[in-house]
Amino acid sequence: MPRLTRDATTWLLYAQIAAYGYFVFGFGPLVPLLRDEQHTSRFVASLHGTAFSLAMLLCAPLFPRLVARFGRSRTLWGAMGGVAVGSLLLALAHGTVQTLGATLLTAFFGCVALTAIWPSLSDHHGAAGPAAISEANAAMSGIGLLAPLIVGASVSADLGWRPGIAVTAVLVLAVVLLGRLLRHRLPSGHQVADATTSQGRSAGGPADRTPAPAVTGRGDPRLFLAALGVIVAVAGVEVCLTQWQSDYLREHAGVSAAGATAAGAALVVGIFVGRLLGARFTLRFPAGAVLLGSLAFSAVGFALFWASTAPAVAVGGLVVCGLGMALQFPMAIVLVLDTATNGPDAASSRMGYASGTAFGAAPMLLAALSDRISPGAGFLLVPLLLAGAAVLTVLILRAGVPAAAPAPTTTPELQP
After folding, report:
1. Mapping DSSP to helix (H, G, I), strand (E, B) and coil, where does residue 214 land?
2. How many CB atoms sit inside 10 A of residue 181's CB?
3. Please, what's the largest Cα pairwise distance for the chain?
4. Which of 236, 288, 369, 415 has CB atoms 3.0–4.6 Å from 362's, for a disulfide?
């Protein structure tokens, strides 16, 4: 059984992903605040989420070129610098065009950083790579618990949201200082996650040391498309709740702007706890069954959040939602890999495009429905996505895809 040894390189990579994780989880509750400040509709404000989606789609083809030219280590440090600069530009921006541009810039460099971190952890730890990646995800969620609270405290102190989001640059600077203090070079191999894994295997490189997921390659494109549909649905659920739950708490439960922003931590609490405990379920039960259970769990939590006007009950519903959401994307990845027609590398690239599409389309659709009808009606998109994911999962399982392999541990906000 592989053993995970956490050395200086490991902690440095964890610190890098945590620094960007602060921005990701701090930005979600920011969208309603930008809407108030810029006096725009929910639809226009949701374009900031679309900027994240565009960043993901741009990162996928550009990342291999950056690594081929600069190496993985330089690419990663450069991307972290871009995250710091982008977050400061966002803190200084005022107009919608300015905030959209700063969001796109920060998200792009963040995606580049994440795409470099995963293979770095895998190469450095070999067979223990999946465990290291799992811990890195937990580190990202852990810092995500603080981000909404800090942004909310900044708003509550009448300082606005800008100081809260500017903390991202401070964290990046701390990581740079940590790197100098440790004097430890990051893995600088040119193997690129998903894009060049097959080359690494054929050459006997580091990719050989990490066991590949079980992939049947059943060759049925309809099942593969259905699995990608599950990816779109569960990613859509996460981004809708992350970006717009604070707006709904204000409109439906009468929570203040600062309180609703801080309440975003409730969702992250559920996700964090779910990731810590979820591995036990994935080892005991087939991934398809775990996915269906997590969808049902999120549906119950959403019902509490959506129907209650009592702030405590609504926030408790967000925690339950997060517990279910923690396992949905990893289980959906298993379905995609098990129905892949051209192997895991091609399937992984398709997952990136699917999740990027969901990140752009789902919050915009929810915002448009909320503007035209009501926030309550707009949020009904969430149970529709949950139901769609459940139907597609059942269809895939009935076709004979067992999806019994242990699931990867990555999430929608981590996908390139």
Report:
1. coil
2. 10
3. 60
4. 236
**pLDDT single digits (tens) 72-129:** 888 999 999 999 999 999 999 989 999 999 999 999 999 889 878 877 876 777 766 6
The mean per-residue pLDDT over the stretch 343-359 comes to: 70
Q: Assess whether pLDDT exceeds 70 at residue 265.
A: yes
- Number of CB atoms found within 10 A of residue 196's CB: 20
Residues near 296 by beta carbon (within 8 Å), at least 6 away in sequence: 324, 390
Produce one character per residue of 46-82: b if its CB has 16 or more CB atoms within 10 Å, e if not.
bbbbbbbbbbbbbbbeebbebbeeebbbebbbbbbbb
For residues 184 and 172, what is the distance between their CA atoms, to the nearest angstrom?
17
- The model's pTM is 0.69
- pLDDT of 302 above 80: yes
Instruction: Say what the pLDDT of residue 133 is.
Output: 66
Sign of CA dihedral 403, 343, 210, 77: negative
Burial of 131 (0-12, 13-18, 19+ CB in 10 A): middle
Instruction: State the number of CA atoms in the 13 A half-sphere of 122 facing the CB.
Output: 26
Q: Is 246 exposed, middle or buried (0-12, 13-18, 19+ CB in 10 A)?
A: buried
Cα separation, 134 vs 130, in Å, equals: 6
Count CB atoms within 10 A of the CB of residue 205: 16
Q: How many CB atoms lie within 10 A of CB 371?
A: 16
The Cβ of residue 3 has, within 10 Å, a number of other Cβ atoms equal to 8
- 50 close to 103: Cβ distance less than 8 angstroms: no
List, as one string, the DSSP characters of 136-172.
Answer: HHHHHHHHHHHHHHHHHHHHHTTS-SHHHHHHHHHHH
Q: How confident is the model at residue 408 (pLDDT cuts 50, 70, 90)?
A: very low
Handedness of CA 36, 41, 44, 45 (dihedral sign): positive
The letter for the amino acid at 201 is: R
